[in-house]
Design goal:
single chain; 14 helices; two-stranded antiparallel ribbon; Helicase, Ruva Protein, domain 3; five-stranded parallel β-sheet; alpha/beta; 336 residues; Rossmann fold; globular
């Protein structure tokens, strides 16, 4: 009995700590809202990825403020920002850096590339060939870069935000599965609502021009926030719920979902389970809560899984997307 009471007190203590330490979320949102109109889902997911130490892939037609969002986020945090425009003629050295021969000193020196920043925007990532995309792999996973024989650690926090345009197919290269899996979240952006679009027009035509966001948070605050996110309490029942959802993508027949088996080519990897748990903790932190509830899992589930489920040609022919399959899984898996 005393164990149960101490656990309750523990959760209360975590809750109080998070109430205090998540105050900077409001400051970031306030600055982001000065520049970004609508797109609440995108800005919220950017913060989830940032606090969960993950990377994020944004997909949407041009002009939906994808680039503006990450630039604004980096400006609200006193952090370094670099933008890499991915093109078919880009080389790995253009991303990570290269060795340059110095004739005077008769030696090679290292010139670091734009990946050495806190925030890296990989714009239209699917426009560059596989060798350039693979140059990002080590940076994203190991948080380090190897140039020649030397290995360099990347700055903290480090966040890759990649955008891709789903409309054009010519001159684009589909991302390798290994790389797609390294993005914690894949967010699909939609057009703004009518009222939001009116505000966007007004903002862009105003005499004063764009409002510049203020730097309200330091990288140290983000690193501290990440440590607190890991303290968010997650019950065993929630862990089981995550595992059940992920396993339902691999063996749907075990969850009474035989009808979706022909549509799934491969299920989500263990990285999906880790990402879902971390993203749910970060989501709870943003909601100023010290514990994870099933609604947190359901809120971030699609963003974590949509790019990790391989669908078959049969599913494509019948116009069944991975999102439709995730909906069926969420309806079938028992909620704790």
């Amino acid at each position: 009995m005393s164990e149960v009471v101490s656990q309750e007190v523990d959760i209360r203590a975590i809750n109080e700590q998070i109430q205090k330490e998540s105050a900077f979320i409001d400051l970031i949102n306030l600055e982001m809202n000065k520049v970004i109109i609508g797109q609440k889902h995108m800005t919220e997911r950017l913060l989830v990825a940032l606090l969960a130490n993950g990377h994020i892939l944004l997909e949407g037609v041009p002009g939906l403020a994808k680039t503006l969002a990450i630039k604004t986020l980096s400006e609200t945090i006193k952090a370094d920002f670099s933008r890499i425009q991915f093109t078919p003629d880009l080389l790995p050295a253009d991303v990570i850096g290269t060795m340059i021969y110095n004739q005077k000193k008769d030696e090679f020196s290292i010139k670091k590339g734009p990946v050495f920043s806190n925030f890296v925007l990989a714009d239209e990532i699917n426009r560059a060939p596989a060798k350039v995309q693979s140059a990002l792999l080590e940076a994203m996973q190991e948080r380090q870069v190897t140039i020649g024989e030397q290995t360099f650690s990347l700055p903290k926090p480090f966040l890759v935000l990649a955008t891709q345009n789903p409309v054009e197919q010519e001159g684009t290269y589909p991302l390798p599965e290994a790389q797609v899996d390294r993005f914690m979240l894949k967010v699909i952006l939609d057009y703004p609502k009518k009222e939001e679009e009116k505000l966007i027009i007004r903002q862009n035509l105003s005499v004063n021009g764009f409002t510049k966001p203020n730097a309200v948070v330091t990288p140290q605050d983000i690193i501290k926030g990440r440590e607190t996110v890991r303290k968010v309490y997650m019950d065993e029942k929630i862990e089981k719920y995550i595992v059940d959802i992920v396993f339902a993508t691999r063996t749907p027949e075990d969850y009474g979902l035989e009808e979706i088996k022909p549509y799934i080519n491969f299920g989500a990897s263990p990285r999906a389970s880790i990402s879902m748990a971390l993203a749910a903790k970060a989501y709870a932190f943003i909601q100023r809560r010290g514990y994870v509830i099933p609604e947190d899992i359901r809120a971030i589930c699609k963003d974590v899984l949509r790019h990790r489920i391989g669908i078959t040609y049969e599913a494509e022919a019948e116009n069944i997307s991975s999102e439709v399959l995730i909906d069926r899984i969420l309806n079938a898996v028992e909620v704790p």
